[in-house]
């Protein structure tokens, strides 16, 4: 599903009006009618035998004009409807002014909210079965203030469901930031296309269920606006997942070599290998420091465990690469980083691996810290991406180190951070977190809708590393492996949460559900699609 920035949406509106010739008033009418269709679906019978009562809050821009359209149609359908304008009527312009006048001429009870009418506003809101939020649109970037802010605060005091028009008032429709007081909607009807900010947190937590409404913008215009972001779907991921035919054997499903774990973090290697196996790699080899061989060999019966030279404290060393040379030469893909630690020996190991490796590579965790801090390792990585493909899977802290910034800056605009990181390092990046973002150097990016708070526990990132590397070993492109891996990993967590709730999910639980998640995607199971979005 396409994601639009506010500017791209404005450009589409302009092209539709000025080149195609569909008037802005028609687009506004279509938007209002789409919202009305959702209101009728959700609340037509909420009045207990009577028509429902709606309070429509309108601001001074086009979002308020949408609200006027909604109020007019609800009134015509027999709903008790109050239209409250939180702006000076004289300030209205264009289609917003037109639809305010039309609402008045059609007999909609309409009032102007001012500093002196706050108590009356609260009283009116208390009588509603549903509140329609048409205060602020996609152009708002800063915290609401004045009458608008007070109206939002009044809504937040009510126990009345809210339907937001286009975006909940108070969210940044581009970045997903919530800089001040904000409407918390039960449902949001967004017009023309899904906005980038609505699928990123914290704004995503304020949207409720999102309804995406067509308002007659021609799809042929999409090529004109430089579209670069999409939300992942099960349908896309089904296309990205590698084909599996009945006659295929283990050699057809890739040879994956992993460098993960250490004496300090032995679980990382086990979880990474388990994630790879559960995602379907044919042959998985976990290369471990010699002193850890017995530990891993006793735990991993399905993977091959290969003993390599290591350091005295059970971490990898430069010699580990030489000992594993034959494995690396035959590898379809390699993954390195989880739990390897960041001392001198692991730095030397990673540098040597990057200098000599030809197979596609996934780097995570300690490997990312090393290339962000060590000049030689970073130089070796740059050389590697000039001849092969890589996927980086940082969490926000690792991303901040790779970018030379701080976590707050990364989280304030995750889409921009992921695309910047991908361009700077010349490879695919999966910026982990709520709504993980996958970006590639050419500027394309995808937002992942699967996953839940149960993933916020140690080891789930190690499973994801194995999952993505497994898909690369099976022949997926780096971007395809990252998109499919992130999606099915999150879906596996969703399946686990549906069975037992998100609290207490472990990394092993997620790994165990990976085959089920892939099967759901491949079969087109509706439960594999984002549950919080409906396309009208």
Properties at a glance:
single chain, eight-stranded parallel beta sheet, 15% strand, UDP-N-acetylmuramoyl-L-alanine:D-glutamate ligase, 536 residues, Rossmann fold, 2 domains, 21 helices, alpha/beta
Task: Tell me what you see in this structure.
The protein has 536 residues and is α/β, with parallel strands linked by helices. The chain has 2 domains: 2-227, Rossmann fold; 234-527, UDP-N-acetylmuramoyl-L-alanine:D-glutamate ligase (3-Layer(aba) Sandwich), CATH 3.40.1190. The protein has 21 helices and 20 strands. The strands form 2 sheets. Strands 8-1-10-19-18-17-16-15-14-11-12-13 form a 12-stranded mixed beta sheet, with helices on both faces. Strands 4-3-2-5-6-7-9-20 form an 8-stranded parallel beta sheet, sandwiched between helices. Helix 4 links the parallel strand 3 and strand 4. The longest helix is centred in the C-terminal third of the chain and has 23 residues, at 478-500. The chain is elongated and about 85 Å long. The model has no long low-confidence stretch (mean pLDDT 94).
CATH superfamily of the largest domain: Ribokinase
How much strand? Answer: 15-25%
Tally of helical runs: 21
The low-confidence runs, each spanning 5 or more residues with pLDDT under 50, are none
Strand element count: 20
């Amino acid at each position: 599903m396409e994601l639009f920035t506010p500017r791209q949406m404005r450009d589409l509106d302009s092209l539709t009006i000025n080149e195609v010739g569909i008037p802005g008033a028609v687009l506004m009418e279509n938007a209002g009618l789409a919202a009305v269709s959702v209101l009728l679906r959700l609340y037509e019978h909420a009045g207990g035998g009577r028509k429902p009562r709606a309070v429509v809050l309108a601001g001074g821009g086009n979002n308020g004009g949408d609200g006027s359209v909604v109020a007019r149609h609800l009134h015509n359908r027999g709903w008790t409807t109050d239209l409250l304008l939180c702006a000076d009527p004289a300030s209205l312009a264009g289609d917003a002014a037109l639809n305010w006048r039309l609402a008045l001429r059609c007999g909609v009870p309409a009032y102007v909210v001012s500093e002196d009418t706050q108590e009356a506003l609260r009283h009116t809101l208390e009588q509603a079965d549903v509140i329609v939020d048409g205060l602020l649109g996609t152009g708002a970037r800063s915290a609401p203030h004045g009458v608008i802010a007070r109206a939002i605060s009044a809504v937040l005091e009510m126990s009345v469901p809210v339907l937001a028009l286009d975006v909940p008032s108070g969210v940044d429709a581009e970045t997903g930031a919530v800089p001040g007081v904000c409407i918390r909607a039960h449902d949001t009807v967004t017009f023309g296309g899904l906005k980038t900010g609505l699928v990123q947190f914290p704004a995503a937590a304020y949207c409720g269920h999102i309804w995406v409404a067509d308002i007659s913008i021609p799809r042929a215009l999409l090529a004109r606006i430089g579209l670069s972001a999409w939300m992942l779907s099960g349908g896309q991921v089904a296309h990205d997942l590698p084909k599996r035919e009945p006659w295929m054997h283990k050699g057809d499903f890739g040879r994956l070599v992993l460098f993960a774990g250490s004496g300090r973090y032995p679980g990382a290697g086990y979880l990474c290998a388990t994630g790879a196996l559960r995602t379907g790699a044919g042959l998985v080899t976990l290369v471990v420091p010699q002193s850890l061989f017995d530990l891993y060999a006793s735990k991993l019966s399905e993977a091959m465990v290969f003993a390599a030279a290591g350091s005295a404290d059970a971490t990898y060393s430069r010699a580990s690469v030489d000992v594993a040379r034959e494995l690396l030469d035959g590898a379809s893909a390699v993954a390195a980083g989880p739990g390897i630690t960041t001392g001198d020996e692991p730095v030397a190991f990673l540098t040597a691996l990057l200098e000599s490796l030809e197979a596609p590579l996934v780097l995570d965790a300690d490997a990312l810290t090393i290339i962000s801090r060590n000049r030689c390792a970073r130089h070796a990585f740059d050389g590697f991406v000039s001849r092969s493909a890589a996927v980086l899977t940082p969490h926000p802290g690792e991303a901040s180190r790779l970018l030379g910034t701080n976590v707050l800056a990364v989280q304030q605009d995750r889409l921009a951070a992921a695309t910047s990181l991908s361009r700077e390092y010349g490879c695919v990046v999966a910026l982990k977190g709520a709504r993980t973002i996958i970006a590639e150097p050419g500027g394309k990016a995808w937002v992942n809708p699967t996953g839940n708070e149960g993933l916020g526990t140690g080891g789930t990132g190690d499973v994801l590393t194995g999952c993505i590397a497994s898909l690369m070993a099976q022949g997926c492109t780096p971007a395809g492996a990252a998109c499919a891996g992130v999606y099915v990993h999150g879906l596996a967590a969703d399946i686990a949460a549906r069975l037992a709730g998100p609290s207490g999910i472990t990394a092993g639980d997620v790994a165990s559900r990976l085959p089920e998640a892939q099967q759901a995607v491949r079969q087109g199971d509706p439960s594999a699609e984002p549950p919080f979005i409906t396309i009208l």
